[in-house]
Amino acid sequence: MDTTHPTPGNLFAALRAAFPTDLSSCAVETDSGLSYSWQDLDQASAMLANLLESLDLPAGARIAVQVEKSVEALVLYLATLRAGLVYLPLNTAYQTAEMAYFIQDAEPSVVVCSASNFGWISKLAFLSGTAYVFTLNDDRTGTLLDRAAQLSATHAVVPRQPDDLAAIIYTSGTTGRSKGAMLSHGNLLSNALVLKDYWDWQADDVLLHALPIFHVHGLFVAIHGALINGSKMVWCARFDPKVVLQHLPQATVLMGVPTFYVRLLAEPLLTTAVVRNMRLFISGSAPMLIETFVQWQQRTGHTILERYGMSETAMLTSNPCRAEDGSRLGGTVGRPLPGVQLRVQDDDGHTLPVGEIGGIQVKGPNVFQGYWHMPDKTAQEFTPDGFFKTGDVGRVDAQGCVTIVGRSKDLIISGGYNVYPAEIEGYINALPGVAESAVVGVPDADFGEVGVAVVVPKPGAVLHSDAILVQLKSQLANFKIPKRCHVVADLPRNAMGKVQKNLLRAQYQNMPVA
Ligand code: MLC
Ligand code: AMP
Question: CB within 8 A of 195, min separation 6: which ones?
Answer without folding.
Answer: 221, 224, 225, 315, 318, 337
